Amino acid sequence: MEIFVTGANGTIGSELVKRGCTPINTDITNAELLRSEIEYVNPDVIIHCAAITDVSYCEEHFKESFEVNVKGTANVVGVMPKDSLFVYLSSDHIFEGNNWFSQGYGEWQKPSPINRYGFSKWGGELTLKTGNCNTLIVRGSKCFNYAWAKPTMDALKNGETVIFTDLIKRSFVHVQHFVDGLLYAVEHHKEIEGGIVNISGDSVFSYYGFWSIVKKVLNLPGEIVPRKERLKNECPRPFRAGLDVHWARSLGIPIYGVTEGIKLLEKGV
């Protein structure tokens, strides 16, 4: 089974390429060229990573984010071979973020996005109904790696004080651990009833809580201060989000704790 990937230069896409997946090189908004490439490679599986994921950018450039995240997704789905598998990476931003349950949102809960990024990702999910191929939606939360964490880690190593919100909560997971789960889900997709599964860290933390754990695990000398109010003119974000991964774990999908991912940061990964 040869797995192809869109968005191969992104954080998750590049990790998939390192593991042997083949890039789809065509701009997904160019429907004609995309059809030509996909008909030529005749993929068994495409993992669709291509997207605009910057929340603030999507809020300010909604037309562009819609073209990429919704229409671009529809372009790929529309040219998939009949017996192939299209895997769509979605986000906990499709929820409103008023979840008081500590374990996060389950697969069964109804999307209700409050920002344009979340709307575009939910719109991408809905386009899967337009294709004739097999589909799988994998919803994720906050992926991290060394490149993302390095500036803050350096500041803490230097004894600086950093401020992080204690309002916004996510299920933090290292990129490598997310991809472990993603590839397992692809291999066992026929066992995933309903075609939707959550893959993320096993617990929900605020950004302040996450970085407090990083500081403790890596023994960093700086200080972390919680911010308990919203920033002025901040674009809408789901506050109490994160994902419930109990079902994924019951399917045998590898699910990791945040401490396991933080230890990879120490290795520069």
Report on this model:
By secondary structure, this protein is of the alpha/beta class. A six-stranded parallel sheet has the order 2-1-3-4-5-10, sandwiched between helices. The protein has a two-stranded parallel sheet with strand order 6-9. A two-stranded parallel ribbon has the order 7-12. The mean pLDDT is 96. It folds into two domains: 164 residues, Rossmann fold (3-Layer(aba) Sandwich), CATH 3.40.50.720; 80 residues, UDP-galactose 4-epimerase, domain 1, CATH 3.90.25.10. Strand 1, helix 1 and strand 2 form a beta-alpha-beta unit. The longest helix is centred in the N-terminal third of the chain and has 17 residues. Helix 1 crosses helix 7, helix 4 packs parallel to helix 5 and helix 8 crosses helix 10. The two termini are 28 Å apart. The chain has ten helices and twelve strands.
Record keyword descriptors for this entry:
269 residues, six-stranded parallel beta sheet, UDP-galactose 4-epimerase, domain 1, 17% strand, Rossmann fold, two-stranded parallel sheet, 2 domains
Secondary structure layout plus pairing:
Layout: E1 3-6, H1 11-18, E2 22-23, H2 31-41, E3 45-48, H3 55-60, H4 62-78, E4 85-91, H5 116-127, E5 134-140, E6 142-144, H6 146-157, E7 161-165, E8 169-170, E9 172-174, H7 175-187, E10 196-198, E11 205-206, H8 207-218, E12 223-227, H9 246-250, H10 258-266
Parallel strand pairs: 1-2, 1-3, 3-4, 4-5, 5-10, 6-9, 7-12
Antiparallel strand pairs: 8-11
Helix pairs in contact: 1-7, 4-5, 8-10
